[in-house]
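Bit of a strange request maybe. I'm writing a small parser for structure token strings and I need a real example to test against, not something I typed by hand. Could someone generate the tokens for this chain?
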Amino acid sequence: ILTGVLRHYATILLASTPKKQELPAIREQRSLIRGINLRNNADAISPTAFVARKNYMISAYKEGAYLKDPQNRGKAAANPMTDPAAMEGMMGMMKGNMAMMVPQTLIMGWINAFFAGYVIMKLPFPLTLRFKSMLQSGVATRDLDVRWVSSLSWYFLNLFGLQSVFIFILGNDNGTPDVSPFFLISLPHTFVVG
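Reply from user aminoacidic:
Good idea to test on real output. This should exercise your parser:
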């Protein structure tokens, strides 16, 4: 839990302040949201009011009244990799991912180095054999009961299960990203069951 709290504050320190958007960009985004809301809530207003609003939105979209860059209308979109603002946003996401991956990889390596092959607990309920590869990673015995959990598997169960604890302690916007299966792909494959 302590590493999660430290990761939260490291993410806050690494986060860059968001840049203010220009007024035309905000107007373009809001007009698109307005069109989506009109489509989604069409049954909440009278048909004549819906048709009038729909016709107004269609004519404004065709004229390009809400575009942030009307002179580039109809041209291909620019490459986002050449936009410095987009690069800064991607760098911010990379900082957040590194704040998540580095401590978790170090902790997993430490657990794997010192506690590889250890069985640390027995679950109080029965499980089927399909859980054996998940709960006994790093333990190479075939006849061990499924309810026994290895240290590396316990680490992964805690990694996935503590997200609700972090939300309780730090709040919903806690800076600790959700652990996804893509995170597991980046980890070295050390938990092969023999």
